[in-house]
User: Fold this.
Amino acid sequence: MTDTPDLHEKMSLATSPEIWAEGGPVEDWTTDYDIRDKDYVENPVPIWAEMREQCPVAHTDRLGGSWNPTRFDDVREMAKMTDVLSSRQVLVMPPPPGSAEMSRYEQMIAAAPITADPPIHTWTRRMLLPAFAPKAVLQYERYTEELAHSLIDEFIESGRCDGAEQYAQQIPPRVIAHMIGVDPGMADQFVIWVNGVLGAGLNDPELRLKTREELLGFIGAEVAKRMEDPREDLLTELLFMELDHPDAKITPEVVVGITNLLIIAGIDTTWSSIGSSLWHLATHPADRERLAAEPEILPIAVEEFLRFYAPVTMARVAEHDVEFNEDVHIERGDKILMNFPAACHDPEHFEDPDTFIIDRARNRHVAFGSGIHRCAGSNLARLEMTTALRVWMERIPEFWLRDGEQMEWAGGQVRGPRVMPFEFAAGTKR
Assistant:
């Protein structure tokens, strides 16, 4: 299918500087929501409840306009509609003004498979699955465990740390760097790049463009090195992979896109989940004490952390006009926010959904998404979360937020803590 002029016009309007205007405070969340709003970022749960009750597929004209489904069944149904809701533009914020227009193919391989529709999605996802199978990710457990201990060793004697910057944000970048075969010392630079795309960069178009160019330049150089000098790493494996799929066209550009996904999506989502889990334990002593006394419930607790603090909201673009649930008219070119976090708080599917239950028995959440785009890296994310929390609780079973110091949340595409001033009884290095 080719784009028609009306869709081009809508897309060009979405990149105009005017749509970034703040637009004033939100007065009605069901008709004028703003995902940048401080209340939405810091505590969206009551806002989702209001939307779900009064207008379960809410709409706003802000940021070029979007739809925001909040019911579990609606989100899952939209996730299945891959023939009419495209994934080629998954960012919840509009493209930066002045950004270069990409072809449909370039959009789809920009961070494939998450930015791709079938058939490109099918074979690019297949490229990733072997490396992220349950048994395959076990090889990174020891590395993650040693990394967690070494990070804690750096601050445990002081009795204080920033749980986000010094711990949660340090683990996924190093694991991903280790996987793709680059210096783990790149972790700090990865954090800067991730923040420039999904953090501060979401609200700063110029920063997002600059960051994207730097990141893709780095990945392109690494891919070129593997073309000349293959190594024992995931980058090389992807480049020289052979797939039994009629549409597969593995090129350096495709591998750059997949690696872009691994660095951006594979890092921010997991560090946000680790950080939210630690924040919860720091502010809910009963849950912290229970987990310390019963470490065997950690795998169940991880699922509840994932559900309650589900970090990721994705976007889709309507390829055709869509009549949804008889009373929602989505026009071609409209953006739809795949609000998986809100779906995880739907009382129709979760008993007492806005209460964190550390040993929740029935927990079929959609924190990793739903449908064909369900997170391919979920096994690695669970391993990193479980290992990071286990090691922390073994070393620092009692900790809390420092009085008088503010923590900071990031929101929009990925919600999670970015500053967490912790205090605890000083310990010793291992």
Observations:
- Residues 252-283 form the longest helix (32 residues).
- Residues 265 and 272 are 11 Å apart (CA to CA).
